[in-house]
Amino acid sequence: MRESYCNPNVVGGAGEQSLMQITHGKCNGAPNGDVATILFIIARDYNIGTAEKFFAALLETNYGNVLETVGQYNGWKPGMT
């Protein structure tokens, strides 16, 4: 809600796209590596699924620390305030 305002067509300032605001670098399975090309076909499922996998991997890397994982998902780096 905070990033996309539930708008599947939104594009952020760094090129992040759709509901979960994922970037091109995380769109390996999308046609041409671009989630925008599939927005009207399967974007919601693909976008949320990709974000879910990315978040789960971060959570595992952070040994279950949800606060740190949410921060990293949003681009925070250790030591930032």
Output the keywords.
mainly alpha
Q: Strand-and-helix sequence, N→C?
A: HH
Number of helices: 2
Overall shape: it is: globular
Reported for the largest beta sheet, the result is: none
Helix content: 25-40%
Strand content: under 5%
Total strand segments: 0
The span between the termini is 23 Å
Oligomeric state of the chains in view: single chain
Low-confidence stretches: none
Count of individual domains: 1
Report the structural category.
Answer: mainly alpha
Which whole number gives the mean pLDDT? Answer: 77
**Which value, in Å, is the CA radius of gyration?**
13 Å
Description of the molecule:
This protein is mainly α and 81 residues long. The chain has one domain (1-81). 33% of the residues lie in helices and 0% in strands. The protein has helices at 43-61, 66-73. The radius of gyration is 13 Å and the shape is globular. The two termini are 23 Å apart. The model has no long low-confidence stretch (mean pLDDT 77).
